[in-house]
Amino acid sequence: MSDSPSGSTSDTASDSSPDASPLARAARVNFERTADRLELPKGIRTLLSRSREEHEVSLPVLRANGELAVYRGFRVVHSTARGPGKGGLRYAPSVSLEEVRSLAALMSWKCAVMDLPFGGAKGGIEVNRRELDDPEARTLTRAYVHALAPLLGPDRDVPAPDMYTDEQVMAWFVDAYAATTGTLQPAVVTGKPLALGGSRGRDRATGLGAAIVLGAAMESRGVDPDGAQVAIQGFGNAGRVLALELAEQGVRVVAVSDSSGGRHDPSGLDVAALAREKAQGASLADLDGGDTLTNEELLALDVDALVPAALEGVLTPEVAEGVRAGIVLEVANGPTLPDADPVLRDADVLVIPDLLGSAGGVTVSWFEWVQNRSGDRWSLEKVKRRLESRMQAAWEAVSTRAADDSISLKEAAWSLGVERVAAAESFRGG
Ligand code: NAD
Known about the structure:
This protein is α/β, with parallel strands linked by helices. Among the domains are: 2-7 and 52-188, Leucine Dehydrogenase, chain A, domain 1 (Rossmann fold); 204-352, NAD(P)-binding Rossmann-like Domain (Rossmann fold, 3-Layer(aba) Sandwich). It has 16 helices and 13 strands. The strands form 2 sheets. The chain has a 7-stranded mixed β-sheet. The protein has a 6-stranded mixed β-sheet with strand order 1-2-3-5-4-6. Strand 8 (252-258) and strand 9 form a beta hairpin. Helix 7 crosses helix 8 (237-248) and helix 7 (205-221) packs across helix 15.
């Protein structure tokens, strides 16, 4: 294992370099603006601008064809000030230390906004998951756990599914951790199968949580959800569940899209039918129901709420100029570039920030961790009730802060998140 020197300035240097990803740049800019607004003392500011730990490991896998393939794996812990590290583990060719570092910090702020007893972490393996068969993916997961086991654990760092990892990968993770440590500890990861201590509702949590805060935002804007029009970019785990939930509540989901393009019907799409057909492997562009539209057209629809639930950085200042929705609900991580925030604010668009809009998933992850540690199993009704109450409380906290300080919801969420982590660090003595 080779740890990169988290005490060096390498984190700040790479994030401000011209080729930093939009997500890394946005995370850096939002943090710096927040630190200025909060007038954070220099030491705490420096501490929170860096990762606590950055680990890079080489993971050998003897493939079925006899080749010894070696993959690069990362785990970054941004903060454990408020509790163990928490954050996803992704398997994707695009994984890099810079990306994982930015996402780890975002997890710290998100957990703090939701007032969860977790810090922030993220991990990944630079691999095309589709190139591996299941035994190879299992071996890769075992190698990752074996390399990082001393740094993981229910009280230390708790991964979860992310891009191209799922409940099966989490199950392999639990098994490998048990083999390495000699004890079965399901709380070492969340997002497990129900049979291995997963929580009911975890697979739908992000969409459910997003629907709850969208309801609260509509109420604050005087929009009647019954018949309100919503457009959603991204029809995956987050966007599809949100669409189904909203449709059940009587909201008109007038447009949805995936990477192939989208479907549009001003009188409301049959999203359940689209979800069923997409589950058979179809692309939205090829399905029946409404008219086709491009992702660019979707972002400019005249709707009550627009939901970017696919990619980072889609709302550039130019695209933001064309937004006609009254509410933007960020479900994707970092869908709005910092330079687009003032464009939306000047147009009186209410932006629900990703730190809140996409926090349903980690909130139910916390429920899973609590159930594992207390040996309890909650009903779906209980999970939904507690999610509702957590999301509403966070909505109240963020909107009250925005009103008190005359700032946007995004600025308020960042203020709350950074402030809570800073307070924990300060009380602990940095
Ligand atoms: P997913 O892989 O299940 O789905 C992604 C969707 O985006 C797919 O429908 C895909 O076709 C679509 N897409 C890809 N490229 C596109 C493009 N160019 N234009 C339009 N659509 C495109 O992913 P997901 O889990 O739904 O996550 C989506 C976003 O939400 C990501 O930013 C993720 O980080 C964020 N998020 C997800 C969760 C979660 O629990 N799923 C939690 C927090 C944040």
